[in-house]
User: Fold this.
Amino acid sequence: MQTYSPFLRRLLAAAIAAGVLAGSAQADVIAATNPSAIPAQAKARKDTIVGAISAPQGIFNPYLFSNGWDENVTEVIFGRLVGLDAQGKLRAEQAESWQVSKDGLQYTLKLRKGLKFSDGSPFTADDVAFTLTFLHDPAYDGDTDISLAKIKGGDAYKAGKASSVEGIKVLNPQTIQITVTEPGATTLQLIGGPVLSRAWYGRGYQQGKLDELRQYSSKPLGAGPYIYDKFIPGQEVRFHANPYYFAGKPAVPNFIYRITSDATKLQLFQTGETDLEGFSINADNIEQLKALGFANLNIYNSSDYSLIEFNHNKPALKDVRVRQALTYALDRKKLVDVVYQGYGSVATLPLSPVSWAYDTKGVNPYSFDPAKAAALLEQAGWKLGSDGIREKGGQKLVVTLLATKSLFNDALIPIAKENFKRVGVELRPEVSDFNALLAKRKAGNFDLATFRTSGLNDPHDGVARFRSTENEVGYKNAQVDKLINAGNGTLDIGKRKAIYHQLYQVLANDAPLILLANRKLLYVNSSRIGNYKPDVFNGIFGSLPKLKIQY
Amino acid sequence: MNQPLIEFDRLSVQFATEQGVARAVQEVSFAIHAGESVAVVGESGCGKSVTALSLMGLLPPAPACRLGGEVRLGAANLLALPPAAWRPLRGRDIAMVFQEPMSALNPVLSVGEQLMEPLLTHRQLSLAAAWQQAIALLQQVGIARPEAIAASYPHQLSGGMLQRVMLAIAISCQPRLLIADEPTTALDVTIQAQILDLLRRLQQASGMALLLITHDLGIVAEMADRVVVMYAGRVVETGSVRDIFRHPQHPYTQGLLASRPVPGRRLDRLAAIPGQVPSPLALPDHCAFAERCPHARPACLRRQPELQATSHTQQAACLLLNAEEAA
Amino acid sequence: MSDDTLLAVNGLVKHFPLYGGVLGRQTGAVRAVDDVSFVVRRGRSLGLVGESGSGKTTVGRTVLGLHQKDAGEVRFAGHDLHALDKAALRRLRPQLQLVFQDPLGSLNPRLRVGDAIGEALLAHGLCPREALRERVLAVMASCGLGEEHYSRYPHEFSGGQRQRVGIARALALQPALIVADEPVSALDVSIQAQIINLFADLKQQGVSFLFISHDLAVVEHLCEDVAVMYLGQIVEQGSREQVFGQPRHPYTRALLSAIPVADPDARRERVVLQGEPPSPANPPAGCRFHTRCPQATAQCASVVPVVHRVAAGHQVRCHLQA
Amino acid sequence: MSVLSLRLPWRRGQAELVSLAAVGRTPWQQALARLWRNRPAILALLFLALMVIACVAGPWLLPWDLETTDALAANHPPGAGHWLGTDFLGRDILTRLLHAGRISLAVGLVSVVLSVVLGYVLGALAGYAGGWVDGAIMRLADLLMTIPSLPLLIILGALLSELQVAPEQRIYLVMLMLSLLGWTNLARIIRGQVQSLRSRDFMLATEVLGLPLWRRLLVHLLPNTIPTLIVVATTGVASAILNESYLSYLGLGVVPPTPSWGNMMDTANSFVDFQRRPWLWMPPGLAIFATVIAINVLGDGLRDALDPRLQARSAR
Amino acid sequence: MRTYVLRRLLGAIPLLFGASLLIFLVFALTPGDFIDGNINLTPQRAAELKALYGLDRPLWARYLSWLSQLLHGDLGFSLQHQIPVSTLLGQYLWSSFLLALVSLLLYWTLSLAVGVLAAVRPYGWFDRVVTLLVFAAMSFPVFFLCLLLIKWFAVDLGWLPVGGMISIGSNATGWDYALDVARHMVLPVLTLVMLQAGGLTRYVRASMLDALAMDCVRTARAKGLPERVVILRHALRNALLPLIALLGFELPGLFAGAIVTEKIFNWPGVGHIHIDTLAARDYPVLMSFTLLLAVLTIVGNLLADVLSALADPRIRLR
Assistant:
């Protein structure tokens, strides 16, 4: 991934922040062969671990940041009430336990005893209520969309018609009860996020006025494993261990996020300036890192997938046969081989292979088949023209493809161009920056668009885009809508799994988009760091409190 | 005659150009005695300025420029001096005044600063003494408000004023020879008269020799004791000013004198010299004036004439002077 | 004004504005030409003499319509030159030509001289294209240039030849009047004589000249009439004999006496003027020459002198003549 | 005095000599002769000619296709079949290099032509017309100078994709944008030249001769500005090629799969490729390096040949 | 002189307004805004946020409110960083300035010295070598040069840090801090010097050649002044006049940040955030920064004029 423009990559990464530092259930570990090769510079750092980060901006509030790198900083400082384990199942963290009513409309969370914020002040249910209320504030402009949790009375508070959110009830300092109007499989994760201290952030808070609260973005107070010290813009973020952390004070006294860039992150790791770093995965990088001798390579499946989206408002692409044909026509295997060099796979489902819902049985894999693609296009009435491009009713089958500049697309574009040409379709790639791509896509000014989803914690996250109420590219299918709502409407994993399996089959036949690839991620740590077990859902944060310096 | 101050002994200067070798000065010999005024007359490109610059060591270094012969100051051959040994002579023993006073002075330095430089360099005066001296010099060249002028910059002064400043700089170290290269060509007639007057007075006061380079025969007649007429890099005639104006021997000198209208003496036509000066890149081996000469004989196209005495104060380089050869 | 008047300049004024201040308003003016009147008669030449800054070049250019006048009148062959529209002025152009001081600078370096001489003939339709070469060669021949020069470029000529080209270019249009602005001062002495002779020849062919020069000897040689300028004004004018023979204005006298004479025995008493000419942006009150005049009186410093006619055709702007 | 005369007496002598020696030659022939004597410049010209020929003819002569990918032949080092090796998609580097040369050179030329036309026309107009026209054009130039070009380029690049410009052509439009910003420098130079030419005697002469306006402009005024134009344009091509590589680095230049020297060099950005596969970035790197040097040397030579007094005042 | 400066200042005012309008239009017309770039938002939420940020208002209203904000000295509030733009720029501007200033001083010194030496003996061996090196340095793509320097000096030789401005976790103060920063600055400064010195050296050389051909230099020699004085006092002072104006033009460059160099060397400069804010369409930052550069350009032009007027008595004493 180093070969493409770092700023675009960073942007992509920002949009998919959760995914970048998330990992798969089981990491393959290629252990260091020669720990004695650890650079002296790293060895000299007896009490500090240095992680890598790309571009934090200094908004260290888990609900106000606008960039995924800031989120990574807040994860260190805040922690969560309810987290995920390495398998993507809910895990108790600052919350000791929770209960969900039968109808899925009432959630009761119980906090751990003696919880404290890092300044030693108590951490109670009232702080949770404050956090959730703040998220409903009319002036709130962060990324978190609390409305998806459908908390009762939330809309009224946001509209200024109520002075509190009706569905939030503090039962006692350790217990909070949330009432919602619709059940949701992802609701618990939404309400079980990081908690803001009312005593710290709530000073001067009034409904509709967040000015003072915002000022604390640069002076964060949380209950996570490390306490924020200092942000040196463009340089590093420094932390020290939190003695009040619920799982005990971390063993390593200091943690630093060093800002690195794609062009030089390998050099920085090699010279010992960083201890933990993420790399784009391919045989080259792995070989290079293995050669260092002191690096532990952790390889695991990511939770995102890449895709080519069809604009369903374009007449040609409304025809399911054309969409299927284009899917058959693309040699995705070659793409994955070239880009990931054995560390990725062709995507069949809109889901990571690590998910409990992953089941490809009976789902059309659309294996590379130009003949079939050509046949489908013939059927759809697109006849070969004299110039080798198919046409129908005087219209050439020419499709534009919106893409950002990235190594993945550097491979995708020539391959797709070549493949499509073979079946009589001309591809016109258009490369722009990510923001412009999304703007164009929103304006409907495209045929195909390719990008990667953000990290997906729940199967619902992977399919929400197909719901006609949320789809921005004109895809509508009543049966799909129904299945998506059903899948999100229950928390029973067994039931959900069956629903999603059916959904995936329907989607495959409808081919609303071309699924491209599931990739793996590569996280590397210097072998001087022990207990490092990154996973897809927690990235480095799962093991951060337990890290130790062994050399 | 006593030992000359400066003696040019068969000086030759050649420039290497893209088109070939330009013979700017060839075999030039003449002498300047102490206190004497010598005028070198000729048209542009005849080598008169190059001759003067060779005296100052201001010609470009080899290989762009090759020098031959000798230029003697006393007993020393200046041309053999290393560049470092040149420097103390310049401005102290030999000073020079140029044609365009506006460009010859540095626009970013005040007149006073430029006037003090030679005093500080050659006479090792203190700053204060140099300043005093500079003011005195300005007074000497007839500048009324010397302090104000010393503090001003060249662009604030007129051409005549600047040429006075140039003269002040030139005489600041009491040189034995002053070279004035077309000192009044850029000036108006009334100012020219002032500067020539000044030049004459300064020379009389200090007893320095003057090498005056000019194309204006009027100025020569007024200023010079002796005249050197140059054509195409060579001396074609030399003699006392009266000899030259009364009895010019060389056809070129004669032509020059006849080609100027004389005030008060009306003629219908001037006696113009036909043709033009030959290129220094392609000088003939014979008399360079032959093609333009009204008296040219076939013999003139055969060889280079040598300077020969026509009287005890006058010499000319023309084959016609040898009646038998010319015939 | 008699019938043989070719050019009549009457009360000509030309000021060049000076701008300054924060808002760039006009703060003053260089009074280059202030109330200048003279006449050039057919077949005769007027020499306009003066030092640099006296405004003689500005007079020449204003007469040619290259500068707009500020006041006064320029009548050429009966036309009020500055009242003509552009097209009419263009039609009149061939009649009224200019020869420059710098022969190289006045020729386009990228044009063959034959084309440079012929182009105006074509542009004015004075000569059909077929006959052009003949005609140009004829003009060139009359200026001492041969056929081999036709297709050369200006940089391939010597200074004198270039000036011949410049003259030929003007001459090709068969002008009635040539304004010659210091046409020989950039040339070497031996070449000057050639060009002066060429002018003399042209005069014999009936061309009139407004001959602008600082060189009194050349003016005396070539011009029947002479006007002497000082700081934008004509201080004395008259026939050659009058101005050179009986100069009346102190400035004219000083000018004449300042010319170095090529005769070592002619040591005469010379009037050396003190000081330098004042700036035309700020000319002295009263007589403009009073600051340098050896005969100035108190009156000269305050009262502007009027033009006195001292003889037929001889005019002097001086209080001493009253 | 001759306008060409330099102030040193020996220089003046030489200027005179030049004019006397070169009898019968047009100013252009003279310039050519001067250029011919400048050996480095001629070598540079030769190199550029070879480069152009190779880029134009090369891709037809080579057996490899520009866009066909071959996963089996990915990242091969230089060898018998692929003389300069292959890239990560198995495409032949030499083929891409030469093809990229076409684009990089064309981009350089096109952008320069555009900015030169703009700069020339506006500069000449401002210089000739003077008055409010001059004022307006120069204020516009001042204004454009205040806008840093990079953000504009990024934004304009985005605008272009909005306008549905085909990707192969987009780079030309990006360069057009560069021209829209880059004309000011040339305009200033030309304006100054036109202003000084206008007041030169030979332009006065055209007025006195009563020549029509078109002739005064097209025959007399403008041809004398051509040498400056050529020199500025030549060095402009060099900086345009560098600009292209810079833009491609930022993802704003030529977009893959269309190759350009700039985006091919992008590979050097991967430390692994940088360390271990020099055949990926060395050829385009050397191509840029050598071409830019050659153009600069040629530009220098042209400057000396066309107008010895025109100094190295190229924008940095 | 003072009226001259005042007149120039007055003339700069309409230019500033023009620049502000142009900058606003360019950014306003760019596809995509701060909200569009966030793929995690539902359409409803995106619409709510656009209203919150005022991105749904008409263009002229947005321009006028931006302008009035500016006239009150308020650069606005960064959407992406959630702090005032002035604070944000303050965080990054000075490290860019430091880097640019140090390289400016170095390459001016270098270019002056080399350019003068080359001009004193034009077409000598020194001049030829310098010309060659200058052309070589001018022909390197920036990023390539950066990577090369990192590979040689940081990775292979290990002499210097790969990037950043201070050592990780360093709490050094005073001299230690300065030394640490200096060590980190070596490579980026070297890059910038190599890139910039070439053109300037050519310029100095040309200007010096002009100056050496002046009559007054010949006069200085004729006065018998030492060659060193002739070159440094007479020729160089004249050669510096056009260069001084150039120095004024460097002003905006001091604050613009060297985008690629800063990026590759991880220098916490403003060039670094420039591209990030652009990708995120953080308009308040972008517009303010661009306007800042525009103002600096205008001031730089003014400074160039004033400086050359001060240096040149022909203008100073007009």
Notes: The longest helix of chain E spans residues 174-212. Chain E touches chain A through 56 residues (CB under 8 Å). The mean pLDDT of chain E is 83. The radius of gyration of chain E is 24 Å.
